[in-house]
Amino acid sequence: PNKYRFRYPGDWLFDQSVAFSKQAEIERPTFRRKRAIIPDAAFGPAGGGLAPEGGRASLSVVVQAAGAGGGFDGLLGEPEKAFQRLVVDALAPEGSGRSVDLLYCGRREGGGAASGLLEFEYVLTK
Fold first, then answer.
1. How far apart are CA 23 and CA 34, in angstroms?
2. pTM tops 0.85
3. Distance (Å, whole) CA 115 – CA 107
4. What is the pLDDT along the chain (126 residues), one digit of tens a residue?
5. Fewer Cβ within 10 Å of end Cβ, the chain: N or C?
6. Which helix (H) or strand (E) holds 100?
7. CA 113, 122, 98: angle at the middle one, nearest 5?
C-alpha cells in the first residue's frame, strides 16, 4: 500500500495485460535464468494505445529490489548510466528492432527514497 503516487489523464485505463502477466508468473513459474520484467502498473489511452495523431503515450511503473550491498547508487550509478542499462536490458535490446530517444534524464531528491528518485522521459519506437 502507498508504494508510489502519480498522475495520469482521467480518460486513460489500466493495462489489463499487466494483471494477466503477473498471474501467469504465479501459475507458470519459469526456470529461465533471467525473469521478465513486468510493470507493477501501466496506464494508457483507451483502444490499446492505438497511435493517435502526434504519437503514443503511456505510463508504466516498474518496482524492483535494488539488491544487497551498494544500495541504489552502487547498483545503477548516475542517471545516464542507469538509463543506458534500461535501454540495453529491457527497452531496446540488440536485435529487437526498437530504438529509444531520450528526452530527459535526471535525479530528484526526496520521495522517501534515501538516494532520491531517477526520472526518465523517452520515446520508444519500433
1. 18
2. no
3. 9
4. 457 777 888 888 888 888 888 888 787 766 655 666 788 888 888 876 555 555 667 888 877 665 665 566 677 788 899 899 889 988 888 998 999 999 999 887 765 555 567 888 888 888
5. N
6. strand 99-110
7. 125
